[in-house]
Design brief:
199 residues, alpha+beta, Glucose Permease (Domain IIA), eight-stranded antiparallel beta sheet, Dup_hybrid_motif, Murein DD-endopeptidase MepM/ murein hydrolase activator NlpD, M23ase_b-sheet_dom, Cell_wall_metabolism_enzyme
């Protein structure tokens, strides 16, 4: 009798492990909005730049896992059409955080839009620079920032998106890169946890 009970409990535990593993390995919900392009790993805007971006990001700029309204679309030429960053859905007033440690290179207004730029620590010469707009700055030029530190909030106006958003960019020198490449896979593709009953 006790042996049968032990077998049933073991079978349930094995089933629970299988179900949990299946849930954890299931593909996450779509990150990109319908029609958005520019997933990580797309080619660089400047072929003369290093082909890799270190995945040093520790957090998203806004929210826990924001929707990408428009992805990175590298231009074919320096002045060609494209989208030199990604647009992340974020209502006005949303806190904007730096994704990795660095130093504020610029915090101010450009053509009526608030912009914050951060040179990322230990990323070479010239360093990788992230930009966030439209953002009301909460930091000053020269200030050291840590991953997840609030550097401002999304402005109510000045966005080029059809819905409220923050434009997140990445550059090295004059070349544009895909900012999503800064995020490691565990952060980029993290989906919700799923728990299922034993029975």
């Amino acid at each position: 009798m006790r042996a049968n009970r032990c077998v049933r409990v073991c079978a349930r535990l094995i089933l629970l492990l299988i179900v949990t593993a299946t849930a954890l390995l299931a593909p996450p919900p779509p990150l990109f909005a319908a029609g958005a392009r520019g997933a990580p790993g797309a080619p660089l805007a400047d072929p003369g730049l290093p082909a890799t971006v270190p995945a040093i990001g520790r957090t998203w700029p806004v929210g826990l896992r924001p929707r990408v309204l428009r992805g990175w679309e590298p231009p074919a030429t320096v002045y060609g059409p494209g989208h030199r960053g990604v647009d992340l859905a974020a209502p006005a007033g949303t806190p904007v955080r730096t994704v990795a440690p660095g130093r504020v290179a610029f915090a101010g207004s450009v053509a009526g839009r608030g912009v914050v730029s951060v040179d990322l620590t230990g990323t070479g010469d010239p360093p990788l620079r992230t930009t966030y707009e439209p953002v009301t700055a909460a930091v000053e030029e020269g200030q050291e920032v840590e991953p997840g530190e609030v550097i401002g909030s999304v402005q109510a106006g000045g966005s080029h998106c059809s819905a409220p958003c923050v434009h997140w960019g990445l550059r090295r020198g004059e070349g544009y890169l895909n900012p999503l490449s800064l995020l490691p896979p565990w952060l980029l593709h993290r989906g919700p946890s799923r728990l299922l009953p034993l029975a």
